[in-house]
């Protein structure tokens, strides 16, 4: 199974046709992922690589863009292996800032939903603890009743024996 990485590219990489070129490189190398401008001025790529060699080749081609186009200036490329696999459509697809805003909105909605679920789970936990406490008290009461009944039984036996 391929591994998903996040690549952060620093430098003069926004508004210079950089993402379009990355799409072409990705398509040529058969790499699937997404590319987008980030608010801090970086270009970010989430992509799947079958092996380390494919990832390094992709990065080399990205670095070569700087030599081919004087508008592009790459300071550094950071990479981070993600602990999950994301299935992307074929090729590298560009996301617009509107797409990113929509994804962030959906992510925020998802986080709110998860928080609601956790709040409900906490309520269920409280109810279960109350039920457990009631069960413990019921067992204690039954134990006490059993003890009293045994005392009555023993007392009745003593009275019967005396008669």
From TrEMBL:
Q: Which residues form the Acylphosphatase-like domain?
A: 4-102
EC number(s) from the headed UniProt entry? 3.6.1.7
Could you state a single Gene Ontology molecular function term? Answer: acylphosphatase activity
Which InterPro entries does UniProt cross-reference here? Acylphosphatase (IPR020456), Acylphosphatase-like_dom (IPR001792), Acylphosphatase-like_dom_sf (IPR036046), Acylphosphatase_CS (IPR017968)
**Name this protein carries in UniProt:** acylphosphatase
Top EC class for this record = hydrolase
Q: Which domain of life is it from?
A: Archaea
Keyword Metal-binding annotated: no
| Hydrolase listed as a keyword | yes
Q: Which family does it belong to?
A: Belongs to the acylphosphatase family.
Name the PROSITE patterns for this protein.
Answer: ACYLPHOSPHATASE_1 (PS00150), ACYLPHOSPHATASE_3 (PS51160)
- The active site of this protein is located at 19, 37
SUPFAM superfamilies to which the protein is assigned, alphabetical? Acylphosphatase/BLUF domain-like (SSF54975)
